[in-house]
Amino acid sequence: MSQEIRWGIVGPGRIAQSVMGDFAHVEGARPVAVASRSADRAQAFAQQHGLERAYGSYAEVLADPDVDVLYLATPHPQHHAIALAAIEAGKALLVEKAFTATTAGAQEVVRAARGAGVFVMEAMWTRFQPAVVALRELVADGAIGEVRSVQADLGVDRVYDPDDRLFALELGGGALLDLGVYVVSFAQMVLGTPDTVTAAGSTYPTGADAEAAVLLGWDDGRSATLTTSLRYPTPGQARVFGTGGWIDVLPRFHHPATIVLHRTGAEPEEITRPASGVGYSHELAEVTRCLQEGRTESEVMPLADTLAVQDVLGQAAAQLGVHHREDPHVLSA
């Protein structure tokens, strides 16, 4: 378990900037390289974070024999092509959420990863937060009985700007892929894959979704009521309801420090489990551990769950009239 795992960063944007500091909390992980389509941007990122190598193309980092795993943090529609090329090059992957822009794109990446025996995981940091781990343990132990329903919301108030990536359909903009992925993934984590998806919402002039309310249904009567928005703010809270009580996940639920257990007939029990660093360290540690152990998937964030979430997002987007596409030209641009 002493093997050092060497990381490359693909896409030195805002999320990558936030993630970099958490490598210091992960034993056995060392970031060594960064790649961007702008050599100047890559060089600036490398100097800021003390990386050994900076590449002005994605192809160069894919060919680097001293990189074991790539953290893929480009816009959603670019994940598909880069991931397929990385898998072909034998590079393990941590792919930022949303995993791809389309369900078909996600399916192709997963098929390629499984066929090649290459480790790939979606960077859904929520599942690795210590407070969420505690919630999963409580649910598994039957602390609130049989789980029957989930509520979750995640919304922000962003001024519409057609030039901003968040509102550009060709860059995977919209509430569903950026924020809705969290509420859907949380519900899928607790309840499994739904049988029905019903969505209502609105779109921007660019064709990207502005807001969505999503009702997930299961044939046995279980349900999830989910809200996401770029048009209005929400508390960012989640609740898991069971036949013997419920659990509140305090805001913001996608990286919480505290949950509150409400057992029927008992006083509420507050459970605080703070994250290490900003909170990305836990998913980085999972990938590092899996690679050290020779695994090709994470048991906490398996590819089957990623596919299920991507399918829900795709169905919801289609019902809103939103049609995302993968970018096939990202490696040649």
Automatic annotation (TrEMBL):
Q: Which residues form the Gfo/Idh/MocA-like oxidoreductase N-terminal domain?
A: 5-122
Q: Which residues form the GFO/IDH/MocA-like oxidoreductase domain?
A: 133-247
Keyword presence, Acyltransferase: no
The superkingdom listed in its UniProt entry is Bacteria
Which GO MF terms does the UniProt record name? Answer: nucleotide binding; oxidoreductase activity
Q: Name one Pfam family in it.
A: GFO_IDH_MocA_C3
Q: Which InterPro entries match?
A: Gfo/Idh/MocA-like_OxRdtase_N, Gfo/Idh/MocA_domain, GFO_IDH_MocA-like_dom, NAD(P)-bd_dom_sf
Per the record, the coiled-coil ranges are none
The record's comment on protein family reads: Belongs to the Gfo/Idh/MocA family.
Protein's recorded name: Predicted dehydrogenase
Organism of origin is Geodermatophilus amargosae
Lineage, uppermost ranks: Bacteria, Bacillati, Actinomycetota, Actinomycetes, Geodermatophilales
